Amino acid sequence: MPERHWIEELPQHAGETVVVRGWVATTRSSGKIAFVVVRDGTGYLQAVISKKDVAPEVWDAFGKLTQETSLEVTGSVRVDARAPGGVELQTSGLEIIGPSPDFPITPKEHGIAYLFEHRHLWLRSKQQVAIARVRHEVIQAIRDFFHQRHFTLVDTPILTGSIGEHAGTLFSVDYFDLGKAYLAQTGQLYVEAAAAALGKVYCFGPTFRAEKSKTRRHLTEFWMVEPEVAWNDSDANMRLQEDFVSYIVGRCLEQRKQDLAELGRDLTPLERVQPPFHRISYTDAAHRAQ
Amino acid sequence: MPERHWIEELPQHAGETVVVRGWVATTRSSGKIAFVVVRDGTGYLQAVISKKDVAPEVWDAFGKLTQETSLEVTGSVRVDARAPGGVELQTSGLEIIGPSPDFPITPKEHGIAYLFEHRHLWLRSKQQVAIARVRHEVIQAIRDFFHQRHFTLVDTPILTGSIGEHAGTLFSVDYFDLGKAYLAQTGQLYVEAAAAALGKVYCFGPTFRAEKSKTRRHLTEFWMVEPEVAWNDSDANMRLQEDFVSYIVGRCLEQRKQDLAELGRDLTPLERVQPPFHRISYTDAAHRAQ
Known about the structure:
Two copies of one chain form a homodimer.
Chain A: E1 3-4, E2 17-29, E3 33-39, E4 44-50, H1 56-63, E5 70-79, E6 87-98, H2 112-117, H3 119-122, H4 126-148, E7 152-153, E8 159-160, E9 172-174, E10 180-183, H5 188-198, E11 200-208, E12 221-229, H6 234-255, H7 257-262, H8 268-271, H9 282-289
Parallel strand pairs in A: 1-2, 4-6, 7-11
Antiparallel strand pairs in A: 2-3, 2-5, 3-4, 5-6, 8-10, 9-10, 11-12
Helix pairs in contact in A: 4-6
């Protein structure tokens, strides 16, 4: 039985016969030769099926593939510089694990409301995968940035008794027979206390704003990072901030170039994000705004 | 003006004159020579003040120090193998930044209820600092473990419309005029959908259980990590789990030995945490339980 591998691992297995499990992204066929692009979350792989080289049931199975059919493909890994990831699969076996009739998100354009209604399936499309990977890199970079600088993570409570900013924008929860609790809008008061214990701290968790809004870009729930450094002056804070932003952008450029390309992102402005940033005093800013 | 450094950095500045900012942990004096242990969240430093070598106002300032006074100390870094961190400070200057009269947590024993009422100050004590650092290491190790294995972080929503486990244990929130929303008990349904898009995913955020309880160890809010791997069988899951636990324990042993020592932790059982773990089939387990 050949070993099963994730698609991203295949370039290290050129020449070997392997098993790949995933879902059908696209298919096409010329009648004698067929192509299936398989995705497994780590990458995309083109499996080539030559009618004359495979058992009839393999060719028949190909005919039943629809978008997002889950399947297992066996084949030998062949280096091909034109292929995404640099390899393709010369297929010897193909087994359908689960059929996928009428997958609701097709290559045609869908409205945004329709896509949100199918969000759990929309996640599978190329752009959504790229966004999720860039988002992951940003968040891991944030945590690595603070970890490397010896900050201590302090997770602040979500259910809080006190009122943070404006009572009108708080979500409230009945907390047993102890009255109302409120969903935190910030961890600030907690990290400030913790900074005097641990020197350099940060919190990074969900925060809540009960602001009624009709736009899709206004979130009632979002993740927020809040660092606190004891003894930092304004200049040291600005240095920390520009290092922070530059580090995150640098990590994404280094690790997520392919995903940024998938998203059609122009990298030039990102490459310019280098410390030190231009600084302007409050007095100058106020003067220029007049 | 000498440069200001965090206490943990001082071993690299032996022989130099530096500025340290922090809080008073303890003081003692023999009348001619005085000692202040300063903490700044990154470590503890003994500052030695020799009455005959310092200006009278420095000696006077020492006399005013109380527990948790915040201060700035200037002095030269001297290697001393007996000192925590390997260095002490020969003090030339001492300035009080903020006095701290009647700090409520003294070296004497306090009841747990009293300490919880002063949680924001209790955080400053040695054991609490050590716990926070070990906790940080565990969490960073969890995220690094998944990042290194190319998992994608998927943060699942806290405010959810559906009911996860038991309606009776859910906290509910009035969500504008759209009815009730519930605080999530798990991100499972979301990460399962995301695994089919991204292959290997995890969520790691706060979850909520409205279970009424009188014990202090029963949490209504806690952070939970939930990985999902498409195509994993039970054996692969077990392998992932034992690697996961071993990696976290290993990281703490490697990076947090001093904090574990502060907590009086016996490291022997932790050092034994190495994969593969002993496995027992369900049938055997059921048989042995009879």
